[in-house]
Amino acid sequence: MEGLRVWRLSSSIARPSGLRQLFGLGSSSGLVRCLDGGASTTTTNTRLPSRNRLSSTSTSTSTSDREAVRAIRLKKVEQLRSKGLEPYAYKWDRSHSARELQEIYKNLKNGEEMDSESHLVSIAGRIVARRAFGKLAFLTLRDDSGTVQLYCEKERLLNDQFEQLKTLVDIGDILGASGSIKRTEKGELSVKVDSFSILTKSLLPLPDKFHGLTDIDKRYRQRYVDMIANPEVADIFRKRAKIVSEIRKTVESQGFVEVETPVLQGAAGGAEARPFVTYHNSLGRDLYLRIATELHLKRMLVGGFEKVYEIGRIFRNEGISTRHNPEFTTIEMYEAYSDYQTMMDMAEEIVTRCALAVHGKLTIDYQGVEINLERPWRRETMHNLVKEVTGIDFTEFENDLKVAKDVIMKTLGVGLDNKDKFSIEACPSLGHLLNEVFEIFVEQKLLQPTFVLDYPMEISPLAKPHRRHAGLTERFELFICGRELANAFSELTDPLDQRARLEEQVRQHNKKRAEAVTVTDGTEEQKNKNEDSMYEVTLDDDFLTALEYGMPPASGMGIGIDRLVMLLTDSASIRDVIAFPVLKISQ
Q1: Distance CA 555, CA 337 (A)
Q2: Cα–Cα distance measured from residue 586 to residue 432, given in angstroms and rounded to the nearest whole number
Q3: How far apart are the first and last CA of the chain?
Q4: Contact 138, 148 (CB under 8 A)
Q5: What is d(CA 566, CA 575) in angstroms, rounded to the nearest whole number?
Q6: pLDDT score recorded for residue 189
Q7: pTM of this prediction?
Q8: pLDDT class of 320 with cuts at 50, 70, 90
Q9: Residue 161: how many CB atoms within 10 A of its CB?
Q10: In terms of Cα–Cα distance, which of 334, 328, 322, 240 is closest to 289?
Q11: 79 phi and psi, to 5 degrees?
Q12: What would the DSSP string read from start to end of 404-455?
C-alpha cells in the first residue's frame, strides 16, 4: 500500500458524475485518482499510467482544478465544524512512530492479530494513499519515520466515523488514529482503527503519483510539497543533519570549542568575494553580510583560545549554479601551534567519519564515479599537477608573465572558449596565471581525494609564506570529484606582512574596478567579469590591530558543508542539499 495510488471507493463500478461525487460529497461509488484531485473520470478497465509514459493529459493539476478542489475541501472544513469537530487540532498523544511499530511487530505472522489492551497504539501522520471496499477501508499513513497501514472496519468504528472517513478524509490530510495491531493475510502491518481524528485538513491536492512533482524549479520553490511527494528528498536532509552532527563530534573530540561570530560586519574580509550590503538605520552606516568567518575566529586566537570553530552561514553576492548558492554553510576552524599539515589530517578525519556515519563504508559512488576515501589521500603541489596534466613547467618562466602567456596560448589555446582565453589574458601575475591554468585544465581531473599544495602568494593573502619555496604559501585545497571541498593555510601571523598583502589586494581590486567603469563594450563574459568587480573593498583595520597584539602560530581550515553533503548523498546540484535555495522570482 505504500505510495500514492488510485483507489476504489466501493465494489460498485459506476462512474463518478462530477466533482461533488468525485471528492466524496455525494455518492461513494466509482474509481478516483486520489492524488491530483482532478475531475477526470475513469472506467473499470482504466489502466494505471506507466511511470515511463506520460499520458496525453496535463502532468500537473490546472489552476481551475486546483481551485475547485480547494473549494470542495473548504466545504468539508465547514461540515466538520458543523458536527462539532475541529479540523485543525491542538495536539495528539502518540504512543509509537510508524518505524517503531514496524520494528516491534516485525515477527508478527500474516493474518495474526494482537488485540489485547497491552497492544493498543496511537499514531499520527499524513494520509498518502487510500482504498475502500464497501464496509472496509485501507489508508496508508506516513510520519517522519516511515509508513503504516490503517485498517478501518465499519463495525469497529463508533457512530458515523466510517462515513466521515469516506466523505471527509482526503489524501494529504493529517490524521491521528488509535487501535490494535494486525498483520493482514498479504503481510501488511496494520493498525486496526478504533477511532480517528482529522488533525489537519489539507486544502490543496498533492501531486499525482505517476507524474509526481517533476518541475525542478517548483520542487525547489515548494520544497514542502517536494518532500511529501518524494520522501527520498527528506532523506537527504536527514543525512545532512547526521553529517553536521558528525562534524561537530569530530572536532570537539579534538578539543575544539564552538564560538559564534558576527553575521553583520563593518568590513567584508576573509575572502575575495562580492558581499551583500545592508544599512543600519540606528547606526547610520552600511554593514556587510559576512563572506567568511575567518577574521573574527583569528581574533579569538589572539584573545587566548587555542582551538576554535564555527559552523555558520556565509553570504556572497555572486552567481548561482549547480555548485554555488548565494548563501551556503561552512565550518571554519583554527588551531594554535599547528601548521597546514595538521589540517590535512583533520580534513581526512572529518570526511571519512562523515562517510562512515552515512554509508558505513569508505567506498562511495558519486554520479557514476567510484570514490575511494581510504586514507591517506594523495598530496601534490599545484606546480607538479599543472606540469603533469599540461606538460608546462611554470618554474621555467621565472617572472616573465608575457612569455608564460604566449606559451600557454600556443600550447593549450586551441579549443579554449572565449571566457577562458579572456581569463588567461587578464591574469596580472604569474601566480594568478598558474592558478587559472590549474582551474581550467587540472581541477576537473581530480576525481579521487587530492590535497593540492603550495599556492602562489598572489592569490593567498592570508597564508604564511612557504618556509622553503619563495613566492609560494603554505596552503592547500582539497579536491574530490573535481570540486574544491576544503581550503586551509598555515596562518599568516606577521602583522606588517599581513597589512602589506591586504593593502595590495585592495589596490588590485580598485584597479579592476576602475577598469570596469571605463569599459562600455566587449563580450558578455567581459561584461559579467566587470560587473563582479564593481563592489567596494575596505581594509579591516581592527583585524590588523588584533594581529599587532600577537597571534600564536596557527593553522586554519574551511570546509564547504553543502558540497560535502552533495558528495555523500550523490546529489548533482547544491540546490538538492539546501532545503530552500535562492531562486529567481517566479513569473
Answers
A1: 8
A2: 39
A3: 38
A4: no
A5: 9
A6: 97
A7: 0.84
A8: confident
A9: 18
A10: 328
A11: -60, -45
A12: HHHHHHHHH-TT--HHHHHHHHT--SHHHHHHHHIIIIIGGG--S-EEEE--
